[in-house]
Amino acid sequence: MSSSSLPKDPMILLSYINTELRDNYDDLVDFCTAHSVDINDIVGRLRSIERVYDPHTNQFK
Questions:
Q1: Segments of the chain with pLDDT less than 70
Q2: Which residues of 14-49 are buried (b: 16+ CB within 10 A; e: fewer)?
Q3: Quick one: pLDDT at residue 1?
Q4: What is the pTM of this model?
Q5: Residue 43: alpha-carbon gap to chain centroid
Q6: All structural domains of the chain with their residue ranges
Protein backbone atom coordinates (compact mmCIF):
# COMPACT_ATOMS: atom_id res chain seq x y z
CA MET A 1 0.00 0.00 0.00
CA SER A 2 1.52 3.29 -1.02
CA SER A 3 0.78 6.57 0.69
CA SER A 4 -1.53 7.35 -2.23
CA SER A 5 -3.64 4.32 -1.20
CA LEU A 6 -4.09 5.61 2.33
CA PRO A 7 -7.19 7.63 3.20
CA LYS A 8 -6.84 11.26 2.10
CA ASP A 9 -8.93 12.75 4.90
CA PRO A 10 -6.67 13.18 7.96
CA MET A 11 -9.37 12.16 10.44
CA ILE A 12 -10.10 8.96 8.53
CA LEU A 13 -6.35 8.36 8.21
CA LEU A 14 -6.04 8.75 11.98
CA SER A 15 -8.74 6.19 12.62
CA TYR A 16 -7.33 3.78 10.03
CA ILE A 17 -3.75 3.93 11.31
CA ASN A 18 -4.70 3.70 14.98
CA THR A 19 -6.84 0.65 14.23
CA GLU A 20 -4.02 -0.97 12.26
CA LEU A 21 -1.52 -0.19 15.03
CA ARG A 22 -3.82 -1.61 17.68
CA ASP A 23 -4.71 -4.77 15.79
CA ASN A 24 -1.69 -5.65 13.68
CA TYR A 25 1.57 -3.81 14.41
CA ASP A 26 3.97 -3.39 17.30
CA ASP A 27 4.83 0.18 16.32
CA LEU A 28 4.60 2.83 13.62
CA VAL A 29 7.84 1.73 11.99
CA ASP A 30 6.43 -1.79 11.50
CA PHE A 31 3.26 -0.37 9.94
CA CYS A 32 5.17 1.90 7.56
CA THR A 33 7.58 -0.87 6.55
CA ALA A 34 4.79 -3.36 5.92
CA HIS A 35 2.85 -0.86 3.81
CA SER A 36 5.88 0.73 2.12
CA VAL A 37 4.90 4.21 3.22
CA ASP A 38 7.12 7.07 4.36
CA ILE A 39 6.89 7.54 8.11
CA ASN A 40 7.52 11.28 7.69
CA ASP A 41 4.50 11.55 5.38
CA ILE A 42 2.25 9.86 7.94
CA VAL A 43 3.59 11.90 10.86
CA GLY A 44 3.28 15.13 8.87
CA ARG A 45 -0.26 14.46 7.70
CA LEU A 46 -1.43 13.66 11.22
CA ARG A 47 0.50 16.56 12.72
CA SER A 48 -1.65 18.80 10.50
CA ILE A 49 -4.60 17.84 12.74
CA GLU A 50 -2.47 18.18 15.87
CA ARG A 51 -1.96 14.47 16.44
CA VAL A 52 1.37 13.01 17.50
CA TYR A 53 2.51 9.42 17.78
CA ASP A 54 2.90 8.05 21.31
CA PRO A 55 5.19 4.99 21.23
CA HIS A 56 4.12 3.94 24.74
CA THR A 57 0.49 3.46 23.72
CA ASN A 58 1.30 2.76 20.04
CA GLN A 59 -1.23 5.25 18.76
CA PHE A 60 -1.62 8.79 17.56
CA LYS A 61 -3.13 11.07 20.20
A1: 1-4
A2: beebbeebeeebeebeebbeebebeeeebbebbeee
A3: 53
A4: 0.90
A5: 7
A6: 7-60
